[in-house]
Amino acid sequence: MKMKYYLTFLMFVLSMILNFSGCREYKTSTKINSDGSCLRAVMVKNTSIEPDSIVFPIPIDKSWKIERTKAKDDSTQTIYTATKHFDNVNDINNEYMNKEKIGLHVNLDKKFRWFYTYFDYEEVYHSYFPFRNIPLKNFLTPNEYELYLKNDTTKALKKRLDKYAEESYFEYFFDKLIMLLGKNKITDLTPEYVTSKKSIIKEHIDEYGDKTEELMKYMEKVLGTKSIWKLRDGIDNIVKSILEEMNHFSSANGSYKNEVTMPGIILNTNAKTIEGNKVVWEFNENRFCYEDFTMTVQSRAVNVWAFIVSGVIVIAVVVLLILPKLKKKQI
Fold it and tell me: Do residue 203 and residue 224 come from a single domain?
């Protein structure tokens, strides 16, 4: 199969995901406490759940309380739930160090202002597109990207996304090739010489895809030397890694829901849903496919003790000011 067909198929899978992303459901719930600690719960609903094979980071160690139950609305679905208390919200990041999973990062900034304490919470789902050598903005404007997030499927937009995928794939391949050349000193095949042929290599490389032998013949023709065959195994590994990355990329399909409950009242958030002091984001994987998705919420909690202490101080000051005057009047 030609590489461009793999890319076309990949984009087709993504477009299908946009419309039918309910096959696997992910839900993350975080309750922030006023002392900065939190309770975190991660839930996955699917027909079968093997955490190691899921690209979303699912806790599996014994420090989490893990439960498996059958969904009440569908007995064929299993709900996997992992819950854990953290003394510090930032410690959650240590649970998401697996680079093969979708990258998640959380942060909590707590600001004490006597009568009130302000909490700024941020959670980021990092882009999982594997070939990020080229900025997406080179192909889509911010407005066009927003249209993509709103499931715009016009031909012009799709064509540019396809082009972005193809260009990104080639840059990934070429960078790996140059690295391979650097490790293997071949007199008539230097990184500089191959780089000078980059545009020519790029012209038809998408016609060879996973067929390493055909790709090698094409490279020999373009570069004008049989020395390229000395890198046959290395190039084969590059092609295999690309296909593995593509398969990994397409496995992030599903619907995502992130809930965060904050202390006090909500002041500001980019979530569309606010329920009391809880905010909710619901999205598909396309929301953090090509670009990071940052979720933010700010709240303000009343420091009751600060009001009490301030009241006591005010009363004490008033008493100290009035008491001498009362004594003078009595005299």
Answer: yes
Structure confidence by residue, pLDDT tens digits, 22-65: 478 999 999 999 999 999 999 998 877 676 668 888 888 889 99
Measure the CA–CA gap between 26 and 44, rounded to whole angstroms.
Answer: 5
Does 113 reside within a domain?
A: yes
Q: Which among 186, 135, 156 is positioned nearest to 292, based on CA atoms?
A: 135
Q: Tokens 């008491």 correspond to what residue?
A: 323
| pTM of the predicted structure, to 2 decimals | 0.81
Domain count, the chain: 2
171 and 238 within one domain: yes
Best CA proximity match to 55, nearest among 306, 259, 244, 233: 244
Element (H, E) at 235: helix 232-250
Domain membership of residue 323 (yes or no) is no
